[in-house]
Amino acid sequence: MKKSLLLFLLPGLLWARQKPNVIIIQTDEHNLRTLGCYRELMSEDQAYVWGKGNKVETPHIDSLARDGLICTNYFASSPVCTPSRASWVSGLYPQATGSPSNNLPLDDSIVTFAEVLRKRGYATSYLGKWHLDGDAKPGWAPARKFGFSDNRFMFNRGHWKKFEMTEEGPRVATKKNGKPVYDLSGADERSFATDWLVDRSLEILERDKKKPFCLMLALPDPHGPNTVRAPYDTMYDHLTFRQPVTMRKVLAALQNRPGWVSGGSNAVKKLSQSTLSKYFGMVRCIDDNLGKILAFLEENELTEDTIVVFTSDHGDMMCEHCRMNKGLPYKTSVGIPFVLRYPAKVPAGKVIHTAYTTVDFFPTLMGLMGISEGLPTMHGLDASAAYTNKKREIARDRIVYVRQSDGNWVAAFDRRYKLVISSLDVPWLYDLDKDPDELINHYGREGYDEPFRRLKRELLAQMKTFEEPALMEKKLRFE
Fold first, then answer.
1. Sign of the C-alpha dihedral, residues 226, 229, 233, 235?
2. Which domains does the chain have, with CATH numbers?
3. What's the CA angle centered on 192, arms 189 and 195, to 5 degrees?
4. CA 162, 163, 164 angle in degrees (round to 5)?
5. Other C-beta atoms within 10 Å of 383: how many?
6. Across 188-243, where does the E strand assignment appear?
7. Burial, 239: exposed, middle or buried (Cβ in 10 Å; 0-12, 13-18, 19+)?
8. Tens-of-pLDDT digits for all 479 residues of the chain?
9. Residues 6+ apart with CB under 8 A from 184
10. Does the CA dihedral 206-207-209-214 come out positive or negative?
């Protein structure tokens, strides 16, 4: 390349590097054991809790981890939809957002990462489930956009399975007595929720590809109801799912469960083959659709300077500990997948064991993008230095704090230990190296006084800093 041409192109090249694109794919209620990139980092008994070899193939999600980084200890700030999502977009703990529990609307004062990017000239778009605008269901295109300039395909609540376009805009395509319902009703590769939302995302990316863009796609699956279109609905019917070890042991000794587990509508005593098979099918459908987005980036030479994140709002226990869904401090409830690819800055194949929560996403994204001015106050940590350095594996002993939406428990996590403090039981201290099934309370046992004191001290400090309501109300038992 001639020197004069290089000098002519250099400002544009530098501008591209200074303004990377952002694509965030967030699923809903996603068990991280269903992803190959996570199974590869687990022992066989942890990777295949529903039976040896029972797995979903997720090559596209796995490629993000292979070509970028994977976090093995990323947690929801609170393992329920609304509060976790509030933390994700704001960098604040839920009690500071106006959305500490489901269906509570985000405070008008909240400044999101999208608003920061919009003010810097980004085309900002949001598609899929929002769950931060109160009770509206489905609630298309909320009036309060929070920085997402194009929110035509944002809906507030619900786990709909079939969408359509009308002259008035997007709609749920299945109705009963005039009201939208969750039925599949013949949904296909053009109308099934995951496919439909990805197709709309590709249209927006095509529109915005020549300018800096930030697109967030919040898929309503694999949250229940566990239904999926053909051929995914029967793709895993040949598997025989077994009860997880924790389910078998809990059924045999119910009296050993922590007080904060008792009751609840998500308790199960029987494993449903169909439920798990179709959950696997939803995950495979998500992965296949992610492949379309990655192919678009490759075809348009956008891969190098686009930050791609795949994550979820919280986990799904899928019969572990005799529970479905979320709401508890067990790792597959509060733990979420987090993989990130950014070839321009993040080395390939990086594994990070340091603990993070959803409050850390906003400041870390800003750090990756080189944005340091004009930011709102945030509670989270900018982890971009850990993401971009040359180390292939990182394992700091950072302690993070997680809360339940109703304040009956709080928890502290690092990469080995977990301390759960509750109003319903004595403290529960887990050693995840020795007890990855989370069945044994090490509180008060010989050799565990130091980790208990260390986690308790840091948990108390963070609850005071972030004004945890349960601490202020003195609801918790610390001894």
1. negative
2. 17-399 (3.40.720.10), 401-472 (3.30.1120)
3. 60
4. 135
5. 22
6. 213-218
7. middle
8. 444 444 444 444 444 456 999 999 999 999 999 999 999 999 999 999 999 999 999 999 999 999 999 999 999 999 999 999 999 999 999 999 999 999 999 999 999 999 999 999 999 999 999 999 999 999 999 999 999 999 999 999 999 999 999 999 999 999 999 899 999 999 999 999 999 999 999 999 999 999 999 999 999 999 999 999 999 999 999 999 999 999 998 887 755 789 888 766 688 889 999 999 999 999 999 999 999 999 999 999 999 999 999 999 999 999 999 999 999 999 999 999 999 999 999 999 999 999 999 999 999 999 999 999 999 999 999 999 999 999 999 999 999 999 998 888 999 999 999 999 998 899 999 999 999 999 999 999 999 999 999 999 999 999 999 999 988 777 788 87
9. 161, 162, 174, 192, 227, 228, 229
10. negative
Write out the two tokens for 265: 């509508």
Q: Which pair of structure tokens corresponds to residue 232? A: 């995914």
